[in-house]
Specification:
Elements lengths: L2 E9 L2 E9 L11 E2 L7 H8 L9 E2 L2 E3 L9 E7 L10 H9 L3 E5 L6 H4 L10 H17 L9 E11 L1 H9 L5 E7 L16 E6 L7 H10 L4 E6 L10 H6 L3 H9 L7 H6 L12 H15 L22 E6 L1
Parallel strand pairs: 1-5, 6-7, 6-8, 8-9, 9-10, 10-11
Antiparallel strand pairs: 1-2, 2-7, 3-4, 11-12
């Protein structure tokens, strides 16, 4: 029902990207917002990469519109997004902008301690604990909601929140998912080991991953699903790798991506960095074809958890026919 707006806030030594509902008529004639991976790096590295040909770091065109006025139909529920490692706050804009169009405010902070900038040698000092930083984002959003003249004034509800995250950010969603104000947590491309001592939060959960994930095997996601308190749901997407639920592979298809950036600039890469930065980006991997499945199940879980829908809509194997470009397996424990 909405267009997606996007704005960038500052929190301590890092940035927070915020997507929010906007009126479709207000974006007529506007160009959608684009970002560059080099913008997520330190100034020194950014200066090096800015001198390279654009095809090395092509812009990723999102589905959101920069600084457009927010819809006056709020307040809207807050969803937190936690990026993976090594990555950056915009990494899954295909999903975060979509959620804004469905009536959620989505906030994604730079977890610099595991971010792309830190991996390439510019770690934050001092570091901030994951859970502490995530709570700081909630407090920031509450302050923006109450700040006269803020673009987000009056549109953010922080009484109940949800959290989703990819890979290491999925771990953040597990850790933060036990907070009393969290109505659901949704780890993407994440899981736990068979012998894990982690106690999973007693909150509704949705686990979603690709079956060919070479970083965190789908068996680890299945283990987490089986260990989760009910109600919990599981979606396994065929032929999707670790980076399937991100923008990263599609930037790479245009000739850029994290690995191409580092190679072009002559930056030394840590061991396993190339594997982390390319898993799921092959010619035979499901990427954009799987995005509608990711969007659907995450949106359905959120709408149900926040009470918009008495029962989650289309949360079943029967809706496979709606997604002809990719296949998945669905399971649930209610």
């Amino acid at each position: 029902p909405y267009a997606a707006g996007v704005t960038t806030l500052t929190l301590a030594d890092r940035m927070v990207e915020v997507w929010y509902p906007a009126n479709p008529a207000d974006v007529d004639g506007m160009e959608p917002y684009s970002y560059f991976i080099r913008d997520e790096l330190s100034q020194t590295l950014e200066d090096i990469l800015a001198a390279l040909p654009e095809q090395v770091d092509p812009p990723f065109v999102t589905d959101a519109f920069l600084e457009v006025n927010a819809s006056d139909e709020g307040p809207f529920p807050l969803v937190l997004f936690a990026h993976g490692s090594p990555s950056y706050r915009n990494q899954s804009s295909f999903l975060t902008a979509h959620l804004a169009s469905w009536g959620f405010v989505v906030a994604s902070v730079d977890y610099l301690e595991r971010g792309l900038r830190s991996i390439l040698g510019a770690a934050p000092d001092p570091p901030i604990d994951d859970a502490e930083l995530t709570r700081m984002v909630v407090m920031l959003m509450d302050a923006e909601n109450q700040s006269e003249g803020s673009l987000l004034e009056g549109i953010v509800s922080t009484e109940q929140i949800a959290i989703t995250g990819h890979s290491a950010g999925g771990g953040t969603s597990i850790e933060f998912g036990g907070s009393p104000d969290v109505v659901t947590y949704i780890p993407l491309s994440a899981g736990i080991a068979d012998d894990s001592m982690i106690t999973l939060p007693d909150a509704p959960s949705l686990w979603l991953t690709g079956k060919t994930d070479g970083i965190i095997p789908a068996t680890a996601t299945m283990t987490a699903f089986e260990a989760s308190p009910a109600p919990t749901r599981l979606v396994l997407i065929d032929d999707m790798g670790h980076l399937g639920p991100t923008d990263i592979c599609t930037i790479g298809e245009s000739g850029g991506g994290v690995i191409a950036l580092a190679d072009a600039a002559g930056l030394p890469l840590p061991p396993d960095f190339e594997r982390l930065g390319t898993d799921g980006c092959g010619e035979d991997d499901v990427i954009e074809e799987g995005w509608p499945i990711v969007r659907h199940f995450v949106t359905s879980q959120l709408r149900w958890a926040f009470g918009f829908d008495e029962e989650p809509l289309g949360m079943s194997q029967e809706i496979q026919s709606e997604f002809p470009e990719a296949t998945f397996d669905y399971d649930e424990s209610l």
